[in-house]
Input
Amino acid sequence: MKNIIFLLFLSCATLINAQSFVCGNGDETPVNNITPPPNFTYNADNKYVLNVKFHIVYDDYGVILDELTVNGQLVNQFGENEIMEILKDTNVTFNPHNIFFKYKGFDISYNSDVTNGLQNGTSISTLGLHDYNTYNIYFVNYTHIGHAYATNGNTWAVFSFHTMNDSSRMQVLGHELGHCFTLHHVFNLYNTTQCEHVTRDVNSPLYNANVAGDLVHDTPAQSSQPWFANCEYIYNPNSTDCSGEPYVDIIPANYLGYDPYSTCGFHFTPGQVIRMRSHLQSPSMAHVLQTYNTIESLYEPFETIPYGGTIIRSISDNGDGTAEVCRNTMIKHRFQKSFDYVFPDVNADDINTATINDLPEIINTTYTFNVQINQVNPTITNEVFVDCNRQPFCQTEDFVNGLVISTKDLGSMNITIQELNEIQVKDPELFQNLMNEYYHIIRKETESGAVKQTVIYKY
Output
C-alpha cells in the first residue's frame, strides 16, 4: 500500500514535523479580478450557501487502486454513504464561519487516463463532468500534482481517494476548499517577490504581512516545516525569515499548513475567515456567483422519491404473470447529512430530530411540514411543501400465489379449492384448465400483498 498521507514522521510521539499530504501548485495560479454586482453589499453576518457536486472517476475496471478506510471500514468503491460523510465533514469545517454547502448529487465515470493522473496540463474541469452552477469536487486514484489540488479562487478541487481516509479527510477538505476561497499556504514563500517578515508591528518598516506571504496578518510568518511539541511551537533560532529574524508564535494545525492530523485541532485564523468571506462577498471569478444558493434551500430535501402507499386504487392483470398495481402516492423526503435537524410537526411514524451523522428521511407525512436547522438558526423553521393532489403511483408486480374456488351452483356448499403456487399463478393456461359449466373465483396475490380477484362462469 502506498503511504501518501505522511511524508515525514518522527518516532517521538510528542514531537511533530510532518506533511499530511502534498497540495499541488495549482492553488497559486493568478486569478482575474472582476467587478462585483452593484447589489452585492458586505454584511459580516451574511450566510453563504454554496451548491456542491461530487464526481467520482474510477479506472476502466471501476475500482479504487489504493487502500481507503472511511468510518473505519475498508472500501474499494465510493457511493452515497462515503459522499455524505465527506459532505458532513465539509460543512462541519465551514459552518462555524457561516459558509454552508448544499448537496447537488454525485456522478460516476470510468477513465483510467484521468483517474491515474492527468498530464500535459490538461484541466479536469474540461472533461465534460463540470457543473458551472456548483462547486465541483473530483475524486481520482492519483493526481498529477500533489495528492490534492485546487485553483485559487475557482470552484473546483481534485482529491486522491486516499486523502479521504478517516485520519486526513478534515484537513484535506479544509485545505483545498480554503484555496477555492483564496487562502494561500501559511508558509507561502513563492507567491510574491517579497519575503514575508516575522514582525507583526504595523508601524515597523519591515512589516509586510498584508502584501507578502499568504497576505493574512494573523498567520505568523513560518517555514513549510515548523516543529511542534505538545501543540506548541519549538523555537529554533536557525529557522528565520529572509532578514534573519527567527520565526515565533506559530500555532500548529492551521488548515493551510502541512501539519499532520493531531489532537491540536485544525483551525482557520480570524484573518483567514475574513479573507474567505471577503472572496464570497466579492468573488475573484465571475462564475463563482453561479454556485450561490439561498438559505431556504438548506431546509429543502435534496431528493424526493415517490412511492406507493397502503391504499390500493386499482389492480389490473397484465396476463403475463404480473399485475399493474396503483396505490395512493407517498413522497419520501431525503435530507443531507451535515446538520442537526428538528422536524416538529411530522407524522408520528416519522423522526422528530436528526444529528449531523444522520441521513434523515420523512416518509409518512402527507401534509406540509416544518424543518429547523440548529446550525443555521435554532429559533426559526421553514416549510417543506407536500403536494396532496397527486396521481396514483403505479408499478408492475409479480403474482406470487393465489387460489381458485370452484362451484357448480352459486350458494352451494359443494366447492373445491385449489391453492396456486408461484408457477401456477403465472400459468397462461390457467383459465383454459378450469372446469366448464362452473363458477370460479380466481384470487391472485402480488409480492406486495395486492389482491386481484375475478369471478367468472366458464361455459
About this structure: The CA atoms of residues 150 and 157 lie 4 Å apart. Residues 80-94 form the longest helix (15 residues). The helical segments are 80-94, 112-115, 169-180, 270-281, 295-298. The chain has five helices and 22 strands.
